[in-house]
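FORM 12-B: Structure-to-Sequence Request
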């Protein structure tokens, strides 16, 4: 049920503050980590910001490759999100240790534009080209990216918006409350303009 999302609507995929999985690859190595701190920062061209700590292996791959992807895990993937956010891929270049994809049996497919490893079973995927901002990266661990491809699972994101319903509860996005506890968007409210 994976469908392309118009780039002009890409901001809607992360507007509600879901936890994302940041995937990256460079020089034959690949990795994935969780990030609760990401947000859209521009409609057109679609731009995003994500915090990637200096301690992470992800940061090395993003800086080396100039690209990253945001994958949105769903309720059914809470354990996966928590695990890849709790274990570092550092050392995976040592052939005696598998990368996190192999270690946890995470299925990946190639991103359509940048060929980044995207996590199967997620409900949305954004490939981003890094917009180098050395000061923001160094001082605030904040990385900016321009979204160049966007896709979503049409069972839960259709016609440019999320549709969180009781019959697709396993596909709802995850919102981190801390220490592995996540909330899911149980209810939505359609606002109307005041008269
Ligand atoms: C739910 C969750 C959210 C997280 N959010 C962030 C984040 O926004 N930024 C960050 O740098 N680390 C965050 N982390 C921690 C990284 O995912 C963690 O350090 C990870 O092991 C790094 O993996 P790597 O070294 O393989 O890149 C989060 C962890 C969890 C479990």
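FORM 12-B RESPONSE
SEQUENCE OUT:
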């Amino acid at each position: 049920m994976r469908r392309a999302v118009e780039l002009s609507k890409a901001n809607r995929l992360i507007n509600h503050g879901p936890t994302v999985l940041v995937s990256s690859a460079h020089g034959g190595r690949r990795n994935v980590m969780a990030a609760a701190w990401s947000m859209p920062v521009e409609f057109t061209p679609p731009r995003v910001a994500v915090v990637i700590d200096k301690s992470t292996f992800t940061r090395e791959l993003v800086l080396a490759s100039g690209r990253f992807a945001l994958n949105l895990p769903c309720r059914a993937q809470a354990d996966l999100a928590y695990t890849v956010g709790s274990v570092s891929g550092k050392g995976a270049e040592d052939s005696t240790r598998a990368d996190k994809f192999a270690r946890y049996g995470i299925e990946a497919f190639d991103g359509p534009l940048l060929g980044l490893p995207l996590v199967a079973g997620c409900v949305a995927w954004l490939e981003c080209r890094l917009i180098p901002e050395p000061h923001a990266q160094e001082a605030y661990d904040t990385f900016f990216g321009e979204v160049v491809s966007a896709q979503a699972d049409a069972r839960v994101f259709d016609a440019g918006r999320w549709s969180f319903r009781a019959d697709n509860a396993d596909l709802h996005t995850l919102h981190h409350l801390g220490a592995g506890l996540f909330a899911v968007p149980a209810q939505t409210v359609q606002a109307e303009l005041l008269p």
